[in-house]
Each structure stands twice: as C-alpha cells, then as structure tokens.
From TrEMBL:
<dbReference type="GO" id="GO:0019288">
    <property type="term" value="P:isopentenyl diphosphate biosynthetic process, methylerythritol 4-phosphate pathway"/>
</dbReference>
<dbReference type="GO" id="GO:0016114">
    <property type="term" value="P:terpenoid biosynthetic process"/>
</dbReference>
<dbReference type="Pfam" id="PF00288">
    <property type="entry name" value="GHMP_kinases_N"/>
</dbReference>
<protein>
    <recommendedName>
        <fullName>4-diphosphocytidyl-2-C-methyl-D-erythritol kinase</fullName>
        <ecNumber>2.7.1.148</ecNumber>
    </recommendedName>
</protein>
<keyword id="KW-0547">Nucleotide-binding</keyword>
<feature type="active site">
    <location>
        <position position="27"/>
    </location>
</feature>
<dbReference type="InterPro" id="IPR006204">
    <property type="entry name" value="GHMP_kinase_N_dom"/>
</dbReference>
<keyword id="KW-0067">ATP-binding</keyword>
<dbReference type="GO" id="GO:0005524">
    <property type="term" value="F:ATP binding"/>
</dbReference>
<dbReference type="InterPro" id="IPR013750">
    <property type="entry name" value="GHMP_kinase_C_dom"/>
</dbReference>
<dbReference type="InterPro" id="IPR020568">
    <property type="entry name" value="Ribosomal_Su5_D2-typ_SF"/>
</dbReference>
<keyword id="KW-0418">Kinase</keyword>
<feature type="domain" description="GHMP kinase C-terminal">
    <location>
        <begin position="223"/>
        <end position="298"/>
    </location>
</feature>
<comment type="function">
    <text>Catalyzes the phosphorylation of the position 2 hydroxy group of 4-diphosphocytidyl-2C-methyl-D-erythritol.</text>
</comment>
<feature type="binding site">
    <location>
        <begin position="112"/>
        <end position="122"/>
    </location>
    <ligand>
        <name>ATP</name>
    </ligand>
</feature>
<dbReference type="InterPro" id="IPR036554">
    <property type="entry name" value="GHMP_kinase_C_sf"/>
</dbReference>
<comment type="pathway">
    <text>Isoprenoid biosynthesis; isopentenyl diphosphate biosynthesis via DXP pathway; isopentenyl diphosphate from 1-deoxy-D-xylulose 5-phosphate: step 3/6.</text>
</comment>
Length: 316
C-alpha cells in the first residue's frame, strides 16, 4: 500500500503548501525630524518609529498568476493592479530570488488609507514576508529589508517592528533597545486621508515663508524618555516636524488634538503626515476613556485604542 504523501514540518513552517497568513502593524513616529530636501527629492529624516497594535492581514495561497483581492479599509478605492505596493513587493521578491511571482493574495485591511500610519508600506512588508514563506525562498529579515528599502522609506521598519531609529530618508533602521514597556495609545482616524508628498511640500512652503516651527533636532530626549518607562516623561518628548503642515492643510485637526488632551491624554500629536492623530495615555483604562470621549465629541471618524511596541510583519 502506498502511504499518502504529507508535507513535513519544515514545509509547513515555510508555508510551502499555503495558505500563509501574515499580520503586519501600523506605525507611528514618536519623533519625526524632517531635515533639508535632498537632491534626490527626499527629505533627510531623523525619526523614531514605533509599531502599534492596529493590523492589516495578508493571506497568500499558491496560484497560476499573481492576483490580489481585498476587504476592509479602502476596499473599492484602492487599486489592486500593478500600482499596489503588495503587487510591487511580490514582483521585487520574485525578481531578487529568481522565482515566478505566482500567488493568490488577499488583504484584510484595518489600517486606514493615506492616514499617516504607513498602511501601504505595512502591506508591502507583509507581502515580502508572506511570499518568502509561500515560495520557500527563505530570505533573512535583513535581506527582506534590503528589498523593502526600494519599495518605500517606511517598508524596512515594518519588516522589523518594535521601536527603531530611522535615518537617511527613513529606510536605514536600527532597533532601539530598551527594557520592554507597553505604551498605551489612542488613535483618532479622520474621514478623509492626506497625501504624504503634499504634506512635505506644505512643510517646504512654510519653511520658505519662515512660518514653520523650529525643527525638532536630535532624538536624544525621546530615547532617554523611552528608557525611563514613565508615560509622563515620554509625553514631553514626542514631536513631529510635519505637524504644522498637516494642521495647515487640515485645520480641524487642532480640534481633535485639543479634544484628546481635554479627555486626559498626556500628549497628542499628528501621526506622520496625518491626518491620524495619536494620543499617549497613562494606562489602558485611561486610553479606553479617551477613545470613548473622542468618538462622542465627533472630532474623528473613529477612535481606536492600541499598544506598542509590537513585532513587525510575521507569519501566524
Ligand atoms: P505614510 O505614512 O507611509 O506616508 P500613509 O499611511 O499616509 O503613508 P498609505 O495608506 O500607506 O498612506 O498609502 C498612501 C498611498 O499609497 C495610497 O493613497 C495609495 O495610492 C498607495 N498605495 C499603494 N498600495 C497600497 C496599499 N496596499 N495600501 C495602501 N495604500 C497603497
């Protein structure tokens, strides 16, 4: 009698017989220092990334072509063709590894579109990790991060997650090593997104006009605060050079920030290029109260609680 052939443990781990499910977090910038515009069109950044517990999920199955479907945030709005970062990431990995880019991919999206939470970059990181497992290409995280850097400045960070320093245009990532602490956040999501390139252009305009705030400079105070593990200390060091630009483009965000602080947040700031606002809470119960108050104040589409840091794109 011939025994039915079964995949072994190694095949299962690699996901060689799919489906492979990858969860990837959103990011906030605890410090987003924007330096001068470089000759390549990017700004020099000095940032501290922090991965929080709002997740997209990407499922990868074997297929005869490369196809993407989705549900959730942005469904019906987000193009699923070659312009989607998931498809671009799959092609990039296949090209690097010398395999055919064949997979059926399904995205369950909870990270809002154009929200300043790097949802597209998160999806690209998820696609690299998922396809690597599906195709059994077995690349290291550092190799995946190398491919990720060509897809977008935030993509390498989302391969690693945690809390990390980002330099260059944000693609050069090094982990911030501190004793584990869980920080509690409230994430206020707006009705309509903001374009990241438009926010950088607005900052350049404000700086040329001499009306931008003083640049943040070094991350030292923030890194010191992370080590102290006291949310009141961390609250005093959060900052974002793009916040003035986001507020100039969307003045109503000032009301969101005020409402969060009135509800008891230790600090509030615009996340990345906005329009999402994030608030640091003293503890989990306080975060729940702030989220409820922000929702009832009508200053955002939705307020969610989250914690961080969390791991980057991971199978399982
Ligand atoms: P960031 O914080 O990195 O600047 P963001 O959170 O403001 O980004 P995203 O949701 O990442 O904004 O996407 C910005 C644009 O990227 C979208 O409007 C869309 O045109 C494009 N894009 C391509 N692929 C994706 C994807 N899988 N998910 C979201 N956006 C995508």
């Amino acid at each position: 009698m011939t025994e039915a052939w079964r995949p072994d443990d190694e095949d299962e781990r690699r996901g060689a017989f799919g489906p492979v499910r990858v969860r990837v977090p959103a990011k906030v910038n605890l410090h987003l220092g924007v330096g001068p515009l470089r000759r390549d069109g990017y700004h020099e950044l000095n940032t501290v990334y922090h991965a929080i517990s709002i997740y997209d999920e990407l499922t990868a199955r074997r297929g005869d072509t490369l196809a993407l479907t989705m549900e959730g945030e942005g469904a019906g709005e987000l193009a699923l063709d070659d312009s989607n970062l998931i498809i671009r990431a799959a092609h990039a990995l296949a090209g690097y590894a010398g395999v055919l880019p064949h997979a059926r991919l399904h995205l369950r999206k909870q990270i809002p579109l154009a929200g300043g939470l790097a949802g597209g970059s998160a999806d690209a990181a998820a696609a690299l990790v998922a396809c690597d497992a599906l195709w059994g290409t077995g690349l290291s995280r550092d190799e995946l991060a190398g491919i990720a850097a060509d897809l977008g400045s935030d993509v390498p960070f989302l391969i690693y997650g945690g809390t990390a320093l980002g330099t260059g245009r944000g693609e050069a990532v090094s982990p911030v090593l501190v004793r584990p602490t869980s920080w509690h956040w409230v994430v206020a999501i707006a009705d309509v997104g903001l374009s990241t390139p438009a926010a950088y252009r607005e900052l350049d305009r404000l700086r040329d006009a001499g009306t931008a705030g003083a640049p943040l400079g070094s991350t030292d105070a923030l890194l010191g605060a992370l080590r102290q593990r006291d949310p009141r200390v961390l609250a005093r060091t959060l900052g974002n050079d793009l916040q003035d630009a986001a507020l100039a483009m969307r003045p109503a965000l000032a009301d969101t920030l005020k409402a969060g602080e009135a509800a008891g947040a230790l600090a509030g700031l615009v996340s990345g290029s906005g329009p999402t606002c994030v608030f640091l809470a003293a503890d989990a119960a306080s975060a729940e109260r702030i989220a409820a108050e922000l929702t009832s104040a009508g200053v955002c589409r939705e307020a969610r609680v989250a914690h961080g840091p969390v791991a980057g794109a991971r199978v399982g």
